[in-house]
Design brief:
The protein has 158 residues and is mainly beta. It has one domain: Jelly Rolls (Sandwich), CATH 2.60.120.10. The chain has 2 helices and 12 strands, in the order αββββββββββββα. Strand 2 and strand 3 form a beta hairpin. Bound molecules: thymidine-5'-diphosphate. Thymidine-5'-diphosphate (TYD) binds next to strand 4 and strand 5.
């Protein structure tokens, strides 16, 4: 395929950022770890060792046993999810495929691309879920109804 046609095809493919995103785009990134006898340090730098700039950080903690978080998708937001302490599972769903990822090491992060339904569950006692996000908080970026999510995915709108 000539280069210009290839580039036009690719830009249509990327329209809207999240179009056609799949659970297979959500990868576990090994992060660095500098170790010495006093412990470890991991450094995360936006657009350097993760694919986006970080505009917001939040963390979940004191999660009661058996509780789940998430239960939504984002239209544009990209996230890196890290088990800063303890462990939990992340269920990813793109409307067709599902994937469950266990996070249990602070030097690994899960990249969640836009257009993916996620649920966080099975938190160990004392778990801390650290989230680095590509955008400021915007309730309009959330899809909180699973039926609506499925409909948007089916129509290639998410
Ligand atoms: P929500 O994203 O639904 O939490 P989770 O996915 O972990 O279950 O957010 C919970 C509440 O916190 C909701 O009322 C929105 C609010 N919130 C903010 O005000 N700013 C933020 O950056 C985030 C992540 C949540």
């Amino acid at each position: 395929m000539p280069m210009t046609i290839f580039m036009i095809t690719m830009s249509f493919w990327n329209l809207g950022g999240s179009m056609k995103s799949s659970v297979y785009d959500c990868v576990i990134l090994p992060l660095n770890k500098i170790h010495n006898r006093a412990g470890n340090i991991t450094i995360v730098e936006g657009k350097k060792n993760i694919p986006f700039d970080v505009r917001r950080i939040y963390y979940l903690y004191d999660i009661p046993g058996g509780e789940a978080r998430g239960g939504h998708a984002h239209k544009e937001l990209q996230q890196l999810i890290v088990a800063a302490s303890g462990s939990f599972n992340v269920l990813l769903d793109d409307g067709q495929n599902k994937k469950i990822v266990t996070l249990n090491r602070p030097n690994y992060g899960l990249v969640v691309v836009p257009g993916i339904w996620r649920e966080l569950m099975e938190f160990s006692s004392g778990a801390i879920c650290l989230v680095l996000a590509s955008h400021k908080y915007d309730e309009n970026d959330y899809v909180r109804e699973f039926d609506m999510f499925k409909k948007l995915k089916l129509n290639f709108k998410l």
